[in-house]
Amino acid sequence: MRRSLLLIVVAALILSACDSQEDKKGRFLLKGNEKLKENDTKSAIDFYSEALKIDPQFVDALYNRGLVFERLNRLDEAISDFGAVLSIESAHREALFQRGLALMDNGEYYKALADAEKSVALYPDNWQSHFLHGLVLEKLKNWEAALEAFDQGLQLETQNSDLLVNKAILLFYKKSYAEAEALLEKAEKVNPTESNIFNLRSMIAFEQKETEKALDWVEKAIALNPRDPYPYNNRGLYKLFLNDLEAGLEDINFSLKQDPKNLYALRNKGIYYTKKGQKELALRYLEDVHAKDPEMELVQEYLSLAQTL
């Protein structure tokens, strides 16, 4: 009887220890979530990491930490965490989507395409699968296939502002400005606080030589989402064309600090140095961008100007 009682006590202690570890990792997860809501990303990462010390296969902590790394543009770490989730749950829809985005932002387009295609195969009825597919195809400059992907997403969610705006971006690339504007009007009715609507309107205005109007639109985009680096780069470009060169460079550098691989921002630095008459620096930036994307707007024009300095 005493032996049986001892076994019961030992078993209870083991179960209690297990419960304690489960509770502890759960508390770390919740604390991480709270810190993330407060925008304290460092503490959020620390708490998620503490949870993972207890259970390295804790999917929720891996996924959430990956999201924070992605927000901070620490893309290799984000990709690693999302990959760890997928090694545990190979069909984890959100991790597959987020890894595809992170791979795309990291310039690993064909790996991102593989995730997008897998997502479409596993979740054809989810708009995010087609959204990711369209984004990656856009990066690969397969615009017609990207348009088709966004249209497939819109068949599932006709009023989705992300899909509407990104389809409008493709129409902008094709110089179908009126069609792009019509989609932006529709997107604004759905989500009037979507900053990308106003950023794209600024780009259309700039292409139509309405630089002051472009500046007004991009200011609205920045006011709506001050953390997005890309409108700052556009504002920098517009300021260059309005001869506010130093303010323009400040915006471009701010954007590059967030995304050092942004070819449009590197192009804009080349434009800045061309306007300043600094031939060596202008050529360094413009030749680099031209080698990677010779068809980018303004690159050949300002490269030719820089060569004559």
From TrEMBL:
Membrane spanning stretches: none
Keywords: Repeat, TPR repeat
Entry keyword annotation includes Repeat: yes
UniProt key word RNA-binding: no
Superkingdom in the source lineage: Bacteria
One example of a Gene Ontology biological process annotation: receptor-mediated virion attachment to host cell
Residue windows of the TPR repeats: 25-58, 59-92, 93-126, 127-160, 195-228
SUPFAM superfamilies tied to this protein: TPR-like
CC per GO annotation: cell outer membrane
PANTHER family: TETRATRICOPEPTIDE REPEAT PROTEIN 6, UDP-N-ACETYLGLUCOSAMINE--PEPTIDE N-ACETYLGLUCOSAMINYLTRANSFERASE SPINDLY-RELATED
Protein name (database record): Tfp pilus assembly protein PilF
Lineage of source species: Bacteria, Pseudomonadati, Bacteroidota, Cytophagia, Cytophagales
